[in-house]
Design brief:
Rossmann fold, six-stranded parallel sheet, alpha/beta, DNA polymerase, domain 1, 2 domains
């Protein structure tokens, strides 16, 4: 399907865009709060043992949001001056290693998803549907190792042409956000050059990845009251909800 300039204008996108790459947690699905709680439940006992204050939402946004699990563990613990051995991905959740802590968090988020379920953002689903109707290719690019299960639970599979998630990134040894490699893999999967794709992200690291990859347009979705930080990270536009882009047209 050809993409018309008027359709792109109604989506708030430049005329050169032919594909849309969506982050999942916080953009497509309302799972960021579950992730924050799972990280807090994982980190707080470590911090208490070190005589430090509890994990905060601001620290989630700065060090963990949008990153692959082990990268998030390293970044946050380093910010608090805590060092753990790396370990290996096969470490049990009880292990006091970077990988063990990351696996502990995965147990927590898996339990939360099973208990709480997955809700979507209505504005994003409407925007995704409009993107599809305009003829753009679509993919999700997420650091989550639970990407496939979450998308299936959310009922979004039919609106997406592809997926690059934490499992696929690990299999291909792709560095996580803010490195652009996962988004570049998403563009390649859809058969478009980066300059013809839009990256849609709520995480600072994700916006940085879109900018670092030379993508044609980067949309920041402000879910954590960090509009200025998303702009500084390289977002071309920042909105509270993607539906705003269609309302502006």
């Amino acid at each position: 399907m050809a993409v018309s300039p008027s359709s792109l204008a109604r989506l708030g996108l430049p005329v050169s865009i032919r594909a849309a790459l969506f982050d999942m947690d916080g953009v497509l699905t309302q799972t960021s709060a579950l992730h924050r709680s799972a990280w807090k439940a994982t980190f707080d006992p470590i911090l208490a043992a070190a005589g430090q204050e509890e994990f905060t939402e601001r620290e989630y946004a700065a060090h963990v949001d949008g990153r692959r699990r082990y990268d998030g563990v390293r970044a946050f613990l380093s910010s608090r001056g805590i060092s753990l051995p790396e370990g290996s991905p096969s470490d049990p959740p009880e292990a006091e290693t970077v990988c063990g802590v990351g696996n502990r968090k995965n147990v927590a988020i898996t339990r939360a998803l099973a208990t709480e379920g997955v809700r979507t953002f209505p504005g994003t689903v409407a925007y995704l549907g409009a993107v599809r109707a305009a003829g753009l290719a679509t993919a999700v690019v997420t650091a989550s190792a639970n990407g496939q299960a979450v998308l299936e639970a959310a009922g979004l599979g039919a609106l997406l042409d592809g997926r690059i998630d934490g499992v696929i990134a690990a299999e291909r040894n792709l560095p996580g956000k803010p490195a652009p490699d996962t988004f570049l893999a998403g563009a390649e999967l859809l058969g478009v050059a980066p300059e013809h794709a839009v990256v849609i992200e709520d995480a600072i690291a994700g916006v940085q990845a879109g900018r670092n990859g030379g993508f044609g347009y980067v949309i920041g979705v402000d879910r954590l009251d960090q509009r200025a930080q998303l702009s500084r990270a390289g977002a071309d536009v920042v909105v509270a909800d993607l539906a705003e882009l269609m309302e502006r047209a």
